[in-house]
Amino acid sequence: MSTEALPTAFLAHRADTASSWWRHAVIYQVYPRSFADASGDGIGDLPGVTAHLDHLVELGVDAVWLSPFYRSPQADAGYDVADYRDVDPLFGELADADALIARAHQLGLRVIIDLVPNHTSDEHAWFQAALAAAPGSPERARYHFRDGRGEHGELPPNNWQSIFGGPAWTRTTDPDGTPGQWYLHLFDSKQPDLDWDHPQVRAEFEDVLRFWLDRGVDGFRVDVAHGMVKAPGLPDWEGHVAMIDGTDGADDVDAVDGSGNHGPMFDQEGVHEIYRAWRRVLDTYEGDRAMVTEAWVEPLSRLARYVRPDEAHQSFNFAFLAAGWHAPALRRVITASYAANDRVGAPTTWVLSNHDVVRHASRLGLSDPTHRPNGIGHGDEQPDAALGLRRARAATLLMLGLPGSAYLYQGEELGLPDHTALDDDLREDPAFFRTGGAERGRDGCRVPLPWSGDAPGFGFSPTGATWLPQPAAWADLAVDRQRGRAGSTYEMYRAALRIRREEQLGSGGLRWLEEPTGEDVLAYRNGDVVVVAHLGDAAVPLPADATVLLASAADLDGVLPAGTTVWLRAS
């Protein structure tokens, strides 16, 4: 294999000359309750985030995305919002959000915050007013209240199932104690879905956008972005929905493999007018504000509709995450992603882990590294930690060499695995309880970060308290243990982000290179960098003339070992 000899396969993506920051940014997701705790109660907070923003600067990212910190009863870790214009006391106060935004901007970091528009908390003032009002009232019209089916209304209005398990409907109780109407919740019963056909709902969220834009945020990540509008009449549907699901990357960007979230509750045409209205709001502000959608949509051609020029700026590419450890699938999905997004002039995003999925350092250590379990528990197959980390590092370098925008989940720069032996009596994810434990849920990927290997609670909190226990093995993965240590995962991330910035890989082009060593090796050229990822089982030779810029493993010695990605200077 020689960087000169590798023939060109085809150009998959042309270099992007647009200057908007979000087109090529590396964005770091902070899950506030698990990032850093300043108060000492064992739960992360906004002052804790602010105090550690220098970590993100040192790492080399461009922006921070914060999961919800709004006022909330925390039935779903803040994704059940009771007040969109206030900070929950668990995380601080509104002044702490202002201080975080100001400090981030002082350090050169952009700030994206979560927006949760599909549903509110059942403790939101609107829903409390709806419960107190009569059927057919204006208060109930802002949600999906319906009479039940059956002789006495004892059956749900339709057969939809909650993404968290169980029926998607809960029956209310009237003031006189008799059973009343039902309300829709695609997630937990404490997360009633809003009716986006109601003009007050649309006006309210445009005002929420302005509230936070006026406070200086640089953009929004939109939760369940494909779910706000439901099909008229809420018809029955026999399908099943899951937290993260999507295509495995068919060659045709219009192909559907049947595994994504379809049905009358998702990807309805009306959602696009919402994003056009929101884009008009963002475009009135200076500073290149951005919006990224969490839309579990397939095929890729339909996902690209969310990022047309007058809608959102980015959409998460779950097809890439779903492709797993399989070179042909990864090549297909990368190629198809560029084809779909280039058609509409939008950048492609890349992500391997987030707060809703098992971390890739654990997923890729399973006997089937293409499997995506909804959580791993003490009674399940335990990942091979060393193999998982090796593959995770290789997958990361494969991803960070790609043009477009990359999203990192807090702690992946440390090589953190999930806490896969967490006691079930410590779990808090509603998906675990609503499925009776059939799904382990997402707590394992949300464990508080280790900052200091020798401190109580690994330095997460000044008291040593942590809302979930940390695995003992995390001591050697703590930030202070990895900083400055040659070959550590943290230093590999820092080097990758530095080279990515220096070589302008985020705005580059992608040309596939035909690799003669077999289908388990992916090779592409981005500018003056050649990225070669080996997902097979046997080592392949490196070119004798290769200048290695960065490798995911240290044991090269003239060959590219299995489970390794290398960045080479193009000849």
TrEMBL record:
Location of the Glycosyl hydrolase family 13 catalytic domain: 29-446
PANTHER family (alphabetical): ALPHA-AMYLASE FAMILY MEMBER (PTHR10357), NEUTRAL AND BASIC AMINO ACID TRANSPORT PROTEIN RBAT (PTHR10357:SF179)
Keywords: Hydrolase
Record InterPro entries: GH, GH13_cat_dom, O16G_dom_2
Protein name from the UniProt record: Glycoside hydrolase family 13 protein
Keyword Coiled coil: no
Single annotated GO MF: hydrolase activity
Hydrolase is among the record's keywords: yes
SMART domains noted in UniProt: Aamy
Family, per entry: Belongs to the glycosyl hydrolase 13 family.
